[in-house]
Amino acid sequence: MTVPAPVVRVRDLHKSYGTLAAVSGVSFDVAAGETFALLGPNGAGKSTTIEILEGYRNRSGGEVSVLGVDPQRGGLAWKARLGIVLQTSGETGNITVVEQLRHFAGFYPHPRNVDEVIDAAGLREKATTRISKLSGGQRRRVDVALGIIGRPELLFLDEPTTGFDPEARHQFWELIRSLKADGTTILLTTHYLDEAAQLGDRAGVIAGGSLIDLGTIDEIGGAEARIPLVRWRDASGTMHERRTTEPARVVAALVADLGGEPADLEVIRPSLEDVYLALVRGHDAAGESLPPDDGVESGAAASASKGMRS
């Protein structure tokens, strides 16, 4: 059986600004219909990587293919196949939601139905409201509606829920899940790790311009990073911790030993955020302990690179 070509293919991507290397040897794929989360701290190189994929910025080296096209050579027909939701919108908001969507629909050869997009974005009650009168969460829905009106095959979401309250975030997640269910491929950047865990199929973690880990949401960081922690306080008030792959057995032994449940008992299973922070801190610590430009690759990066070559 023939394996479909990836929607996004990145190999040994480099981007330098003079002597500053913003991106150094990043490689990953995004499959059709997948939601891929690109994670990393500010200044890590993820925004530069995304801008190269979107065709806004030229690379210094490496190979990039987006929908089968080199972004540096993508024309209008290629751009019409993309949906891009930037972190901030430049819309003035002096026209209504429906007027804005009809205007943008005219830019594409086969746009979605405007009314269907309004309903999908949860904007039916605000369709005739001027954009300037909308709340921040509602404006963000307009941004997404504008991003999908052209029926994109690939949708870029850059920090889509920044500033949302918890209810608005969860509503937005449902919208993204509906787009995925329709077959849209999504490349997501976010600082909310619970958002990446909720929406992502796979993730790549960038730090210092390099890809330090790559895998499914449940695989990032490796098995050891996800070992549960049992924490309790003994009769003297001393806090104890034990990492174990069998937390239930440890708790049962404690209860049997003490004749009852220990005080302040917790079983903590590391979240994606815990794993991500450990990866980034480990990378930073390794960088501080090595001389500049020594070319040493971290174990996580080596593992990610090996996975890309296999």
Report how far the terminal alpha carbons are from each other.
18 Å
Quick one: overall form?
globular
Highest-level CATH class of the domain at 8-81 and 153-216: Alpha Beta
Radius of gyration of CA atoms, rounded to a whole number: 23 Å
Which strand-content bin applies to the residues? 15-25%
**Helical fraction:** 25-40%
The main sheet comes to: 6 strands, mixed
Q: How do the helices and strands follow one another from N- to C-terminus?
A: EEEHEHEHHHEHEHEEEEHEHH
CATH homologous superfamily designation of the domain at 8-81 and 153-216: P-loop containing nucleotide triphosphate hydrolases
Structural class: alpha/beta
The average pLDDT value, as a whole number, equals: 86
Widest β-sheet, arrangement of strands: 5-6-7-3-8-9
CATH architecture of the domain at 8-81 and 153-216: 3-Layer(aba) Sandwich
The protein's oligomeric status is: single chain
Tally the helices.
Answer: 10
Low-confidence stretches: 290-310
Provide the CATH topology of the domain at 8-81 and 153-216. Rossmann fold
Structure description:
It is a single chain. The chain has 310 residues and is an alpha/beta fold. Among the domains are: 8-81 and 153-216, Rossmann fold (3-Layer(aba) Sandwich), CATH 3.40.50.300; 228-268. It contains ten helices and twelve strands. The protein has helices at 46-54, 76-79, 97-105, 114-120, 136-148, 166-181, 193-199, 247-258, 272-289, 299-309, and strands at residues 8-17, 20-30, 35-39, 61-66, 82-85, 154-158, 185-189, 202-207, 210-216, 229-233, 239-243, 263-268. The strands form three sheets. It has a six-stranded mixed β-sheet with strand order 5-6-7-3-8-9, with helices on both faces. Strands 2-1-4 form a three-stranded antiparallel β-sheet, with helices on one face. The longest helix has 18 residues, at 272-289.
